[in-house]
Amino acid sequence: MSTSIPRVVELSGPFARFAGRLLVGLGHEVVLVEPPEGDETRRELGGDAFVHWHAGKRSVTLDRSTAEGAAGLRRLLAGADVLLDGAPDGAGPAAEGLGHLVHVRVTPFGLVGPRSGWQGTDLVVAALGGMLAQVGDPGGPPLRPAENQAEQLAGVNAAIAVLLGLRARRRGAGQLVDVSAQACVAAALEAGALAYLHEDRVPPRPGRVHPLVPHGLFRAADGHLGGGLGGSPRMWDALLAWLREEGADADLAEPRWQDPVERKKHQEYVFEVVQDFVGTWPKAEFAERAQARKLPWAAVDLPHELPDNPQLSARNFFTRVEGRTDVGFPFAFPEGRRITRLGVPGPGDDQALLDERRTVRRAEGAFSGRPALDGVRVLDLTWVLAGPYCTKVLADHGADVIKVESVSRPDPTRFAPFMHLSRGDHTDPNTNGYFNEVNRNKRGIALDTRTEEGVAVLRDLIASCDVLVENFSATVMTRLGLGYDALREINPGIVYVSMSGMGHTGPRAGWVSYADTVSAGSGLTGLTGWGPDDVVGVIYGHGDIVAGLQAALATVAALEHRAETGRGQHIDLSQLEAIAAHMGTSLLTSSRAPIGNAHPVWSPQGVYRCLGADRWLAVSVRSDEEWAALCDVLGRPELSADARLSTAERRRRASALVDGVLGEWARGLSADLAAELLQERGVPAGAVQDGRELVEHDPQLRARGFYVRAEHPVAGAFLHEGVPIHLTRTPGGVRRAAPVLGADTDEVLRDVAGISPERLRRLHEEGVLR
Predict the structure, then answer these.
(1) Is the pLDDT at 213 greater than 90, yes or no?
(2) Given this model, what pLDDT does residue 648 score?
(3) Of 222, 298, 571, 631, which residue is the least packed, with the fewest Cβ within 10 Å?
(4) Mind telling me which InterPro entries this protein's record contains (predicted)?
């Protein structure tokens, strides 16, 4: 049998299973290889873990430790296109010598480096990758974002890796792809390491206030709200007008508060005034009234409240699995199709696949060493973080990304004072490390799209591009005369990826959103904290980065679909849906309150203070065997024989005793030494690392060459965050620094759009170009 639908064989694991789920959503055939007793998630959370992660997949059972089982896996892989390999021990000899196979190996720390053999859990990888250092109260313990966000970052990167490998195979053979979960986290910190790289500064944990933009978490009369002062003078004026109407403005109407620098300097006071106003409103009513004024606020919802979200419901986001409602997929694919129902396979339901003969696509030529997306041209109309992060991923893997900025209004991250990260002049639009990080490897043009001539130039570019990506509000492209129907007239094969906060359809399509408000509406904020009355939330731009990664996945999937069918499509990605799709099992389990750094099954799991200022150790104990090893390292072997602590549930009930002993031991050691002692005995542990420690001290990232030096023509030489996906035959990388504003305008318009020298000169004279 020959088919164009890729077959993916999945050897599952915590850092790979989300990738398999995403590939189901893309229409791939995913075959889960289970041990004879069934995958361990069948027994996790009463089976809800299996329902969420593996619904829609096919199942075969094999004992891979036997010759018969190894032979069965070999036969299965011989007819597969992809091996998604998240097993602790990997596929082994069964995958060797299969030149057609895209083998994506997903591990906590990568296949090479001094810590490649370290044990990793979501908590430990989030600690060593820098995520934990960005969540929690200043001076208090670092806090893990809810629903295994480190695992899910690895999963979406692994899904991207699968598609990049398949695309590269169109002009070569299969290859091994090395995905490090730690690197996936380290590449997704917004300004976490950039503040150190560009300002020699390590920001403290932000608590409930965004470290850069004037947004945060506020108490409502019946819960919480995400929002703030917005990012433009219009938003401040609209919020101030509302406060004045209600007699709640205090002294904020005084002229001094019109200065955004003054507001930032005294932000704590401004937030107190806003909190006094917000706290009198029910969360849903306040959010709706704020959005009616085009102000970026959202109610902080818990997962059980998501099915009542009218936007998610109207866009058919949710998936029904055996009569139950689960979170859906991050975007509709292909061509607007939504998966609304999935079945759950029984162990070995598809055993016949082991003997099926299936023809797979073979290599047609030798590799040239070019990156996987070489030859793809992307028109980048994005700004700030979510959209530029998407196009950064595409550019890192070889796409020719042309960033279009307005002559009159460049990307806000070039000039916004509160987002400018630089040792130099904060008024120079070319020196901001924030902009320069997410726009590396791109070419840049400056164009006034408010003019007819500017839009005409844009249309000329669209005709010569494969992909257009934008993250404007839902109506902007239509107002420019460039809705999807118009784009298809210009370029019938165009892949159009829109990335508005709520999507282009639905009753809330016009809502204004930032990363924190999207996280608030998804359930992530409400589940991140120490308890129902102590919500902290994920305040930095995690939601933007998730949306960017999912948009990159959608783009490569759409390019593959076009290669098979000849058809482009519109990917109407909602940033709210993208992050809601990262909420794991929370809907199935009806999660209603944060649990801090604890785990619902394992014990102990937590973060413990060590020697030094703000130094912490993350530890996870997944089994009784690891508990015994931990007790030995602590010098308390008798605790492993204590009947009060003999199971994870008993250890959880005796958490004061367990955490007290572990905390006392950790307090006398450096975090790095404590982690090494535990890892030597196979216990997952790692220091909580901030931006400085990631850049200067992490031996694993250094061995993998994660931070890459590149020279910028204005900002000078600096380190860039690297590429967490390593394709061994068609690697991506940092090839060039971000563009100076308008630096490539003439070159791009001449070579790509075919604009004559005479027309270029006229457009410059008229101020259409810079």
Answers:
(1) no
(2) 96
(3) 222
(4) CoA-transferase_III_domain (IPR050483), CoA-Trfase_fam_III (IPR003673), CoA-Trfase_III_dom3_sf (IPR044855), CoA-Trfase_III_dom_1_sf (IPR023606)
CA dist., res. 1 & res. 23, Å (int): 21
Q: Which long-range contacts does 244-250 make (Cβ < 8 Å, 24+ apart)? A: 246/277, 248/273, 248/276, 248/277, 249/273, 250/276
Q: What is the mean pLDDT of the chain?
A: 95
Per-residue model confidence (pLDDT) at position 362? 66
Q: Which of 85, 380, 544, 698 is catalytic?
A: 544
∠147-148-151 over CA atoms, to 5°?
Answer: 145
What's the CA gap between 118 and 683, in Å, rounded? Answer: 9
Q: Is the pTM of this model over 0.90?
A: yes
In sequence order, what are the residues at sequence separation of 6 or more whose Cβ sits closer than 8 angstroms to the Cβ of residue 488?
494, 568
Backbone angles phi, psi at 619, to 5 degrees: -135, 135
Active-site residue, 355 included: no
Residue 216's DSSP bridge partners are: 209, 227
Task: Calculate the CA dihedral of residues 65, 66, 69, 73 and round it to 10 degrees.
Answer: 60
Please answer whether residues 329 and 582 qualify as being in contact, where contact means their C-beta atoms are separated by less than 8 angstroms.
Answer: no
For residue 425, pLDDT over 80 is answered with: no
**What distance in Å separates the CA atoms of residue 112 and residue 176, rounded to the nearest whole number?**
13
Alpha-carbon gap, residue 193 to 253, rounded angstroms: 37
Strands 400-406 and 377-380: parallel
Mean pLDDT of 411-421: 84
**Length of the chain (residues):** 770
Tell me what pLDDT residue 363 has.
Answer: 60
* pLDDT in the model for residue 364: 58
The DSSP line for 576-588 is: HHHHHTT-GGGTT
Distances (CA, A) of 15 to 18, 25, 246: 7, 18, 50
Assess whether pLDDT exceeds 50 at residue 622.
Answer: yes
50-75 as b/e, with b when 16 or more CB fall inside 10 Å? bbbbbbbbbbbbbebeeeebbebbbb
Alpha-carbon 118 to chain mean position: 23
Q: Is 555 helix (H, G, I), strand (E, B) or coil?
A: helix
Average pLDDT over residues 278-292: 97
Cross-strand pairs, 402: 379, 443
